[in-house]
Amino acid sequence: MKIHFIAIGGSAMHNLAIALYQKGYQITGSDDTIHDPSKSRLEKYGVLPKEFGWFPEKISSDLDVVILGMHAKPDNPELLKAQELGVKIYSYPEFLYEQSKDKTRVVIGGSHGKTTITSMILHVLNYHDKDVDYMVGAQLEGFETMVKLTEENEFIVLEGDEYLSSPIDRRPKFHLYKPNIALLSGIAWDHINVFPSFENYVEQFSIFTESLTNGGIMVYNEEDIHVKRVVEDSTHPIKKYPYETPKYTIENGTTLIETEEGDLPLEIFGEHNLQNLAGAKWICQHMGIEEDEFYEAIVSFKGASKRLEKITENKETVIFKDFAHSPSKVKATTTAVKNQYANRELVACLELHTYSSLNATFLAEYKGALDKADKAVVFYSPDAVKIKQLDEVTEHQIAEAFEREDLIIFTNPQEFKTFLFNQELKNKAVLLMSSGNYGGLDFNEVKRLV
């Protein structure tokens, strides 16, 4: 099969390209720019475009499929050529469904936790040598790629993102998978550029619930009131399995989960992570993993990349980085670190980087998100606001939104770096939350602070 990727450099797109190359398909692709790690990984497999840009001459009628990435625009010259020639065009979630129609599809959805839960499931299955196909949104220890597709595996585990599928397919990705087994972890308003109201956003999760196959299984977090309502109000003929935060204790900086076999020490911590673990356990049990087998494997799970990732530590200081950017994630992550290191001063640094977080009307959602921090810092780039063509956001608006009079605000990357590197780190926990890099912060330099 000959497949061409428009916008091959994306995180999910380049992994899908590699997975299909490994499956024996003939792969080509284009993008206007590709950064590492995508660039070096595509190069390793011989599918990196020879030059960047869009080349309509790459599109011909002998292509079987074109896979269109979200990074491309509707007027992309390669897309227009494919449409003109009548070549079959898929978004990557649409193509994943085509590749998994004869498999048992397990889809993990929710505003937060879906990458971690998917990672936990794959870690447990890998520990017990149970081979499955998958697509996950983070690089995992012990897994070479973030996508795997085979002919023979019975199960495919998919991280179900609610964002749009492609520039010409405005459906949320997780509406396309038609799961046999699904999970909903939580609902907290996000992607306001696409879902302008909370009600409209919640509706997408109702549609997801209705998309399960008849008789399918829905595992859901009953502690989230919006998830509970969406699932329990559904009249779709599915089986419903609620989960909640398991009982646990914290001893000397280690979280121990209560089980029938006794208390087990975990590498991870925080109530959200423990909720995620409870959901992952249910999914694994539906995939044939016994409870004791799950616990045997999960104690060695260290977390998904960029999700509450410990980047350096000594006896007096610990520094984490986390992908958290939405209000609910920021609050949960800040609370988790403070609870885990209750006797240390917590310095929590948040970068407002996404479209939603830099939107003046959305800022109010951050009320209380950094309350658990002893020292709370917000960084944002006025240039990023301009690039996203948003209304100007002022420091006064940010201070009002978080409702902290002592909030420290930076707009200059060098000033933020100077602040961070001049901190007295004795008896401190430092938390760096961002889906960006604070205007160019080198995290390898941060490691050398301790």
**How would a textbook summarize the main sheet?**
7 strands, mixed
Query: Which geometry do the CA atoms define?
Result: globular
The number of E-state strands comes to: 22
Low-pLDDT segments, ≥5 res: none
Q: How much helical structure, as a percent, in the residues?
A: 25-40%
Number of helices: 14
Spatial arrangement of strands, main beta sheet: 7-6-8-5-11-12-13
For the CA atoms, what is the radius of gyration?
Answer: 22 Å
**Approximately how much beta-strand content do the residues carry?**
15-25%
User: How far apart lie the N and C ends?
Assistant: 51 Å
Taking all residues together, what is the mean pLDDT? 92
Derived from helix and strand composition plus strand pairing, the structural class reads alpha/beta
List the helices and strands and how they pair.
Layout: E1 2-6, H1 11-22, E2 26-30, H2 38-44, E3 65-68, H3 77-85, E4 89-91, H4 92-99, E5 104-109, H5 114-127, E6 133-135, E7 147-148, E8 155-160, E9 164-166, E10 169-172, E11 181-184, H6 198-210, E12 217-221, H7 225-232, E13 239-243, E14 248-251, E15 254-259, E16 262-265, H8 271-286, H9 291-298, E17 309-313, E18 317-322, H10 327-340, E19 345-352, E20 375-380, H11 382-387, H12 395-402, E21 408-410, H13 413-421, E22 428-433, H14 443-447
Parallel strand pairs: 1-2, 1-3, 3-4, 5-8, 5-11, 6-8, 11-12, 12-13, 18-22, 19-20, 19-22, 20-21
Antiparallel strand pairs: 6-7, 9-10, 14-15, 15-16, 17-18
Helix pairs in contact: 5-8, 5-9, 6-7, 8-9
